[in-house]
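Hello forum,

I keep getting stuck at the same step: I have a sequence, I want structure tokens, and every attempt I make locally crashes halfway through. Rather than fight my setup again tonight, could one of you with a working pipeline run this one for me? It's a single chain of 343 residues.
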Amino acid sequence: MPLKKAMVDWDSLGFNFLETRSMYSANCNVGEDWENGSLIPFGNIELSPAAVVLNYGQGVFEGTKAFQTCDERIVLFRIDQNARRLAWSTERLCIPKVKPDFFINAVFETVKDNLDFVPPYGKGSMYIRPIVWGVSPALGVGPAIDYRFMIYVSPVGPYFKGNLKFLNLKIETNFHRAASKGIGNAKAIGNYSASLFPLAKAKKEGFDEVIYLDSVSEDRIEEIGSANLFVYHDGILKTPKVSGSILKGVTRDSVCKISSDILGMKVEETDVFLKDLFEAKEVFCTGTAVQITPVGRISYKNKVYKYYDGNLGPITKKIKETLTKIQRGEMNDPFGWLSPVSV
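Reply #2:
Ran it on my machine without issues. Output:
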């Protein structure tokens, strides 16, 4: 029997927040384990203006998705990887560790209670946002005593407008996103605030996003503000290796495995220099929100490098189609990435 859906204009979905039925909430004090969380109606929350998260940015989040497959199952995609990353990120920011089992159970519970907001097959996905932060008030710099963990969800369409968009990117030379020994490899809320000003400036100049360089020599590619980056040239697919300033993206890892294990390509997680980028035949970015989005043009010091003539590059197309087919249940899931949600 087909799943009953919420009253949503599924054909007009963008990457905008839509309120759903419920959200998950749990509290934890220092020295305790996360437990006894529950679903509550979606709504605003109350927070002290002296809360540590507001004053010192002690908070981390995750992003994952649920899909409806071609055989009408609702599935989560690689939820175990998000669980591991959040466990590491919370420890890195002195937050009581959110253990994978607690996290996964909370995600399943939240999605199951909002199943009717999962877009129909082929119409989008449900974006799932777990977030945890320090709530206790403090004036001095230090970790909070009390913490709150929440999950909210929203049906979403493409991150960038249009069914197929070739991104116009700018290589940023005046700002860095993160330093190699900082928290760029954690899903920390503060990482994204650092990119807001350069992004706003770039958009005024007609660009979609910004490519950041390493903070030492400034000759290596790191990330764009909201995604990881891949370049393809001479039969090799390259992506910047994970370091203290680069987030270990779940979609990034999925693309590496699909490209090497299914498509038989040579994949290198390595330093990617400006020269590699400028010589590349195809460039694309990856992320839970952006999925796989091709790059059409990149500007660097008043010079423009073009990568597409209006058609999706053959390598990008193969990878994108394979990932999409796995997520939608249109082909065998050789890695066991899909976790069905019981209806």
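The two ends are 11 Å apart (CA to CA). If your local run keeps crashing, start a new thread with the error log.
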